[in-house]
Amino acid sequence: MALACGMAVSSCGGLIYEDEGDCAVSYRVRFRYDMNMKYADAFVHEVRSVTLYVLDEDGSIVWSKTESGDALASEGYSMEVDVPAGKYGLLAWCDADEYKSWTFRQAKVRSDLDCALNTRQASDGSSITDGRIDDLYHGYLPEADFTADEGTVTVTVPLTKNTNNFRVVLQHLSGKPVDKDKFDFFITDDNGRMDWDNSLLPCDSVTYRAWAVSSGTAEADMQSVTESAEVTKATSVASMVGELCRTTSSATETFGVALAELTTGRLVIGHKPRLHIRNKEAGTTVLSIPLIDYALLVKGHYNEGIPDQEYLDRQDEYNMVFFLDKNENWANTYIYINSWKVVLQDTDL
Question: Which segments in the chain show pLDDT lower than 70?
Fold first, then answer.
């Protein structure tokens, strides 16, 4: 009888596993995306495809796997990793898996695990993208301890988002409609390639053209609307994002605006991305501003303790409102960024 009982159970390091046979161990990896302004894990809401690479101490890839689809949207999702017991590095590239915007290089070692934006060549030889871009995420865990020989071991890889969405509104101070077809909206930056550690690799400048340009209207309470009138508060972007302008006056005016939507790669301190608006009919530049400098202008008191690069990595949406004077030049005394009014003293930032 004692022998029969011994065959029904097995002992592993003092633990008893019933109906298991040999002792079992499971290594699993979870992914967390809370590097955002809400400090809340948004992985299940945003990421649709994950490729995980398991690295040995020499940086060689010993195992990799891609998972996508509905499984990632389930609460508590984790990927099972099939490797011998040991300590490993973990690297992940993740995206929204909709527009096939990124190329992940086939590699055997960590140093070759870079990522590149898919672009096309314009007639002048420059690299451009003018369609929607999948959101991109990078994760790296230098050491995952998979040395246990029993039970379930779960580690978590933190993710950083590498894409930013811009909504750019162009409005006449007079309130007259803006012809959306008269203007070009685009961003330039040399950020089309990312290395295994998420740093930017040298590359040619990429032109990110607006993937959508539309006309809209916004109702605003104004004291008066003239070429010299000042809008005292802007809360967001036209009817697509919210109410554009508001003051304490009860008078309501309707404004016509042009709204451009653009997506770019990661904003990195030390690089010089610029937002450009051109008047196609006149062949002139309406504005060209340094994006990082302007983005950091609204970092604000509550975020002053965050390093600039961390703030840029956490903030992934920017709503920007610019005003045109009667000659359709930029009225560059103030702008609105994410509902903050910025009074400009130096437009050559």
Answer: 1-22, 218-253, 346-349
CB 57 within 8 A of CB 90: no
Is 74 part of any domain?
Answer: yes
Residue 9 lies in a domain: no
Gap between the Cα atoms of 156 and 240, Å rounded: 36
Range of the structural domain that residue 74 is part of? 25-98+134-161
Provide the 10 A C-beta neighbour count for residue 186. Answer: 19
Which DSSP letter does residue 250 get?
-
Longest dimension (CA), the chain: 99
Split into its structural domains, the chain has a count of: 2
pLDDT tens column, 261-280: 999 999 999 999 999 999 99
Q: If 0-12 CB within 10 Å is exposed, 13-18 middle and 19+ buried, where does residue 121 land?
A: exposed
Residues 266 and 334 in one domain: yes
Total number of residues shown for the chain = 349
